[in-house]
């Protein structure tokens, strides 16, 4: 087989290549196991020694011609294929897109995060506890022994004689005091679900509470003034800088003295409206100085230690903050209601 004949045939075949398949077939014809250039290369053993160099150079020249053509054409066909795909699969980005529905933070979660951020910045620890609580921690260790009439203030869900769904997060305060057993000061809040048999526009059988507890040595003078200052910062952060507080004497078994705390109506500014029932004030908190019996039962000597406690319902705070008229809206999972909170808080 003459090299010139193969070269002439290759140049003719090159002119007819118009697709990637044809190009691959051409490669098989010339460089396959039985390809024409492969056969020329295998014939070198039969060539006289003095002619081998010239013969090998001509075969290599022929191979280079083929490889150059092949690489060029392969690149061309691949680019052509890519352009064809891009053209057929292109997306018109000028068309209006379909709006993707997205979730947003629930108003309760927004309120909880704001409360946690505030109290953490004030040096408080966020503590958690069980929702299925014992009668001992829910009542007895909070100065509410069995048969105490104040238990009737909280219509409870009992699971057994000794276990119930907690009616207040104060149980976590008792657990925290027992944990430290009079060994160190406490500055904590507990946020979580509580349960009572109530269900109307402003009450729910399940609701969220935040309770705070501060205990320190009496020599450090933790007093009612500290409680008042803490609650003023708290309420102004949640309801606005113009919020004013009013303390009214009240009764809670676990504090003495005890106070109900009202805030000036954020809707009318204290002038009187339907929200505050024309009084200019809205009750939001319960608070007081920790009762000596509670300190003693939970490992703190009331002669050496003292402090204050407070608590409020987060659901009501969220209602006041966002103008929600019915507490039950918070738990119905109505998308029309939740979509209103798809925004950033200022």
Give the gist of this structure.
With 346 residues, this protein is α+β, with helices and mostly antiparallel strands. The chain is built from eleven helices and ten strands. It folds into two domains: 3-88; 107-341, Bira Bifunctional Protein, Domain 2 (BirA Bifunctional Protein, domain 2).
Structure write-up:
27% of the residues are buried. This protein folds into 2 domains: 3-88; 107-341, BirA Bifunctional Protein, domain 2 (2-Layer Sandwich), CATH 3.30.930. The mean pLDDT is 86. The chain is 40% helix and 20% strand. By secondary structure, it is of the alpha+beta class. It contains 11 helices and 10 strands. The chain starts with a helix and ends in an 8-residue tail after the last helix.
Strand-helix topology:
Blueprint: H1 3-15, H2 20-31, H3 36-42, H4 49-89, H5 107-121, E1 125-127, E2 132-134, H6 135-138, E3 157-158, E4 163-165, H7 170-180, E5 186-195, E6 206-217, H8 224-239, E7 245-252, E8 255-264, E9 281-290, H9 292-297, E10 305-313, H10 314-322, H11 335-338
Parallel strand pairs: 1-5
Antiparallel strand pairs: 2-4, 3-4, 5-6, 6-10, 7-8, 8-9, 9-10
């Amino acid at each position: 087989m003459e090299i010139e004949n193969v070269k002439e045939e290759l140049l003719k075949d090159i002119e007819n290549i118009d697709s990637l398949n044809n190009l691959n077939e051409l490669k098989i014809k010339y460089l396959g196991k039985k390809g024409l250039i492969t056969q020329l290369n295998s014939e070198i053993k039969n060539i006289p020694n003095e002619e081998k160099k010239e013969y090998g150079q001509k075969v290599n020249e022929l191979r280079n011609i083929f490889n150059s053509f092949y690489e060029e054409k392969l690149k061309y066909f691949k680019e052509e294929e890519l352009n064809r795909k891009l053209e057929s699969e292109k997306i018109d980005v000028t068309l209006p897109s379909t709006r993707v529905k997205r979730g947003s933070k629930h108003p309760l979660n927004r309120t909880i995060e704001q409360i946690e951020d505030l109290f953490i910045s004030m040096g408080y620890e966020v503590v958690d506890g069980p929702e299925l609580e014992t009668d001992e921690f829910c009542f007895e260790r909070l100065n509410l022994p069995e048969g105490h009439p104040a238990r009737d203030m909280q219509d409870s869900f009992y699971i057994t004689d000794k276990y119930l769904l907690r009616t207040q997060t104060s149980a976590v305060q008792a657990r925290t005091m027992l944990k430290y057993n009079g060994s160190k000061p406490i500055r904590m809040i507990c946020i979580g679900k509580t349960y009572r048999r109530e269900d109307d526009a402003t009450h729910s059988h399940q609701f969220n509470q935040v309770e705070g507890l501060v205990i320190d040595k009496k020599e450090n003078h933790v007093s009612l003034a500290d409680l008042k200052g803490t609650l003023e910062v708290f309420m102004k952060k949640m309801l606005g800088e113009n919020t004013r507080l009013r303390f009214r004497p009240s009764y809670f078994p676990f504090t003495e003295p005890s106070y109900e705390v009202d805030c000036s109506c954020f809707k009318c500014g204290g002038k009187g409206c339907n929200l505050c029932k024309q009084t200019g004030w809205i009750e939001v908190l319960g608070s007081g100085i920790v009762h000596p019996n509670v300190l003693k039962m939970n490992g703190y000597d009331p002669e050496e230690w003292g402090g204050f406690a407070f608590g409020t319902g987060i659901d009501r705070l969220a209602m006041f903050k966002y103008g929600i008229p019915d507490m039950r809206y918070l738990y119905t999972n109505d998308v029309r209601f939740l979509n209103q909170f798809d925004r950033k808080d200022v």
